[in-house]
Each structure stands twice: as C-alpha cells, then as structure tokens.
UniProtKB/TrEMBL annotation:
Protein source organism: Salinicola endophyticus
Organism domain of life: Bacteria
Pfam families: Aldedh
Name of the protein this chain belongs to: NAD-dependent succinate-semialdehyde dehydrogenase
CDD domains, sorted: ALDH_F5_SSADH_GabD
Keyword Hydrolase: no
Keywords: Oxidoreductase
Family label: Belongs to the aldehyde dehydrogenase family.
Transferase is among the record's keywords: no
Length: 483
C-alpha cells in the first residue's frame, strides 16, 4: 500500500474520488485520541467534490452493473486477500486514529474482511424466481437487480468493518458506492479504497469522500435522485434526520442506529461464565460499540456474588496506550465521548448509586472501567447510550419483571441473557423486542448472520444472506407468449 500509517509527521491523505485531485483543496487535521497530537491531514471535501463523486458513481454503476456476478466475486475475493495482507498496517492505523487497542484492531480486520469474503460468495447466489402462471399464454418471472449508486455514511467505532459490511454487499449486487467515513477515522477508509484499486477494482465503483462537516456532503448526495440508496450507521438523531431527507428522492434506506442493550443474568447462571460474557459485551472497544451492554439486570439470589466478581474483573483491565499489546481499554474517541461517559458516572453517583471499582484518576480521554450498583431508572445511564466503560447493575426478582425492564426503552438493537434453563432461554429470547439476542453469548456478531435493530435502533439488516437484499430491487416480468 502506498498510503503511510498516520504518524507524528501528519502525512496528507487525498480523498478517493475518481476524476478529482484533492491535493490543492481544503484540509483538516486528524488527531490521536491517545495523545491529542496531529497524526494526519485529510482532504476536507465540500459540495463541489460531492457532485464529482456522484457523477463518477453514476458512470461507475453503468459499467459495473454489466459485469457478471462471477467477475464481481473474483474482484471481491482479491480485495479480501489484499486486506488480510495489509492487516498490520490497517490495525495500527485504527489504533492511532480511534484508539482501539491493537489486539482488538487486528480482530476487527479479520471481522471486516469476513464481510468481503461472505459477499463475494453471495454475489453468485443472486438468483430470481419463476412463478406459476394462472394464464396458459403467459410466463412469469422475478429478476433481482442492483438498486443503483449507493451513499454510505459510517461511524468511527469500527473504522473498517462498518465500511465492508456496506460496501461488499453493494459491490457484490452490482451497485457503485460512495463512502463518507466518520471525520475521526478517514484513513482506514482511504486505505480500503486504495486496496480495492490495487487489485484492479474500478475507481468509480468504490469512492471515499472525506469531510470535517458531513452535512455539506450529505445535502448534495441526499438531494441527488441518481443516488438510489442511503445506508447509514451512526446515532439515532442523525439517522432520523437522514430518513426524513430521503423522502424527497425516495431512496432505499438501511439505518443501523444507537442501542441501549440490556443483559439479564438469571440466578441459575454459572457466575464466572456470565461475568466473562458481560465483560466481553460491556468493555470491548472501551464500551464504544452499538451492541455494548448498557444495563445489567441480575437476579437477587446471585446479585452480590456477581457484582463482586464483575467489579474485580473490571478493576483488573489494563488501561493504556492502544499500541501496547497488553492494553485492554484505550482512550475514548473524543472529548465529547469522554465527557458523556463521565457525566453518566457523576449523575448516577449524585443520585445515590455506589461505585464498586476504584475511583482512579485518569488523564486525557481515558475513563476508568467502572461498575455501579444502586442504579435507578431515572438516572441518565439508564436512558441514554453511554458509549463508555461503565457498567450499571440493577437487581430483579422474576423473569416477567426482567423482560419488562429490558423492553422498556425506545431502542431495540441487541439484548443478552445468561441462564442454564433451555425453556427460559427460549421464552426470554422470544419476548425481547430486539433485532439481536445473545443467549449465554456476549459477542454474537458474525458476517454470515443478520445484524440490525428494531424501533429507534433502525431499519434493515446487514450481513448474512439478508444483507445483499438491501442492495437489490425486485423486478416482476410477465411475458405473453406468441399465439
Ligand atoms: P454520528 O451519528 O454522530 O456519526 C455517524 C456518521 O454520520 C459520521 O460519519 C458522521 O460524520 C455522520 N454525520 C453526522 N452528522 C451528519 C449529518 N448531519 N449529515 C450526514 N452525516 C452526518 O454517530 P457517531 O457518534 O459517529 O457513532 C456512534 C453511534 O453509532 C452510536 O449511537 C452507535 O450506537 C451507532 N452505531 C450503530 C451501529 C449499528 O450497527 N446499529 C454500529 C456502530 C455504531
């Protein structure tokens, strides 16, 4: 790869727009969340560049839709291989631009590449239907065709995976895709585009437009009727705004939005195993994933033992430099993210919660892993997505109470439970109003399973054989035979 890893020399990264040279245009600075120091200069694209990208995407689509699924699958496979070869570069880039601990960053590269491999295979399975005809002189069939040029907006918390989960099915279906990555993590996105071009992928088919002010880009692309689909992963308020904007051009929509995941631990649980799964779900990526547990409900009989062991495990987590192999919790991505997590802790303590973990003093954007008890529904942490390493514990008495509490939220992305009872596992997972349920499993996501939410957590599914449907339109063809 010719693009350098971001560093203290703050190299410049042009946008990946076919037919546009961003060398002379505006730039913005990307800073390391671990040190606060500049690590890159990136093209700060505006409306004019967005227009160039849309024109290129339309041209790219006209060509790309003519390719066979087998040609598309071969290119996607080559891109998958290139990504794995560049694993260390991509992982280090993610550690530097978003503060993800390096071992987790390597795991993200594998996970992200997994979507490319999966959708390379799925490209060859875009089949249609032959329908029985009620008329002897007619033949009825259904074709599935690419929706057209796609606009994808992605968040910073998975700088690689949130892109491949959208771009791979889009390309496999025959669409062209313009990605607008989060302003904090543009470099991983640009590297993915470079790898695509290196393996022979057409530049007009996958483009990356970087910008410090996302609305300047999205206003142009949302208003452009040639862009037939928006796929967005990010916060619920921004998702709702884009949903409203999409009405003017009637775009297809996929919205992967915020969550407020409950984890129900029943008193038949293996406490150590339950602690392990809660730790994986809560503290992964510093608590900055949309499926991170936000509320932990523990049945009264095991509450004290569970709380003690969870607090001990949280206190033992290694906080530090994301590039250090030993680090388990890095900095939060931004001052606003750090302030929100800290505000959730302060608000809970002020309203009567108790802290079970040591009150460490940490500098910069770090927040010490924290376990709280005595948490009540009116506390902010019980209503808003925390996106930080804070685990509130709530006691419950019976199954019905736990289900009602878990469902008492506008969100519906992921929920978890721990029990040894097969009957309870079935009953509770059916009763939870969520798109994803982990039964004795705090990390359920895999490329071949559907990922997405209900209610304020969004629309549509990514991954699995469902993921490619979001990029395909269904066309009914009725043929009257010669008489
Ligand atoms: P965000 O909504 O602030 O930003 C997400 C993306 O939207 C970024 O690229 C940003 O530049 C862009 N954006 C912001 N304002 C915009 C506007 N007015 N017009 C167009 N684009 C705009 O969210 P964030 O803080 O970066 O990401 C964290 C959120 O993402 C959390 O709520 C998290 O739960 C959610 N998330 C959801 C999933 C999922 O699959 N459901 C996965 C990861 C993250």
């Amino acid at each position: 790869m010719s693009l350098p890893v971001p560093s203290a020399s703050a190299p410049f990264y042009p946008a990946a727009i076919a037919g546009h040279d961003s060398e002379a245009g505006a730039r913005y600075t990307v800073r390391s969340p671990a040190t606060g120091e500049p690590i890159a200069e990136v093209a700060d694209c505006g409306a004019e560049v967005a227009q160039v990208a849309a024109d290129s995407a339309q041209r790219g689509f006209e060509q790309w839709r003519q390719t066979t699924p087998f040609e598309r699958a071969a290119l996607l496979k080559a891109w998958h291989g290139a990504m794995l070869e560049a694993k260390e570069t991509l992982a280090l880039t993610m550690a530097r631009e978003m503060g993800k601990p390096i071992r987790e960053a390597r795991g993200e590269v594998d996970y992200a590449a997994g979507f490319i491999e999966w959708f390379a295979e799925q490209a060859k399975r875009i089949d249609g239907d032959i329908l029985p005809s009620p008329h002897p002189e007619k033949r009825l069939s259904v074709l599935r065709q690419p929706v057209g040029p796609v606009f994808a907006i992605t968040p910073w918390n998975f700088p690689a995976a949130m892109i491949t989960r959208k771009v791979a099915p889009g390309l496999a279906a025959g669409c062209s895709v313009i990605v607008k990555p989060a302003e904090q993590t543009p470099i991983t996105a640009l590297m993915l585009a470079e790898l695509w071009r290196q393996v022979g992928g057409p530049a007009e088919v996958f483009q990356v437009i970087t910008a410090e002010r996302p609305a300047a880009i999205s206003e142009v692309l949302m208003a452009d009727a040639r862009i037939r689909k928006l796929t967005f992963t990010g916060s619920t308020p921004v998702g709702k705004r884009l949903y409203a904007q999409s009405a003017a051009t009637m775009k297809r929509m996929s919205l992967e939005l915020g969550g407020h995941a409950p984890f129900l631990v029943f008193d038949d649980a293996d406490i150590d195993a339950a602690v392990t799964e809660v730790m994986a779900s809560k503290f992964r990526n510093g608590g900055q994933t949309c499926v991170c547990t936000n509320r932990i409900y523990v049945q009264r009989g095991i509450f004290d033992a569970f709380a003690e062991r969870l607090a001990a495990a949280a206190a033992a987590l290694a906080i530090g430099d994301p590039e250090d192999e030993a680090t388990q919790v890095g900095p939060l991505v931004s001052q606003a993210g750090r302030d929100k997590a800290q505000a959730h802790i302060d608000d809970a303590l002020a309203k009567g919660a108790q802290r079970l973990t040591p009150a460490l003093s940490v500098d910069g954007l770090y927040v010490a892993p924290t376990v709280l008890t005595g948490v009540t529904p009116e506390m902010r942490i019980m209503q808003e997505e925390t996106f930080g390493p804070v685990a509130p514990l709530i006691v419950f008495d019976d199954e019905a109470e736990a289900i009602a509490a878990a469902n008492d939220t506008p969100f519906g992305l992921a929920a978890y439970l721990w029990t040894r009872s097969l009957g309870r596992a079935a009953r509770v997972s059916e009763a939870l109003d969520y798109g994803i349920v982990g039964v004795n499993d705090g990390a359920p996501s895999v490329p071949n399973a559907p990922f997405g939410g209900v209610k304020d957590s969004g629309l549509g599914r990514e991954g699995g054989h469902y993921g490619i449907d979001e990029y395909l339109d269904c066309k009914f063809v009725s043929t009257r035979l010669d008489r």
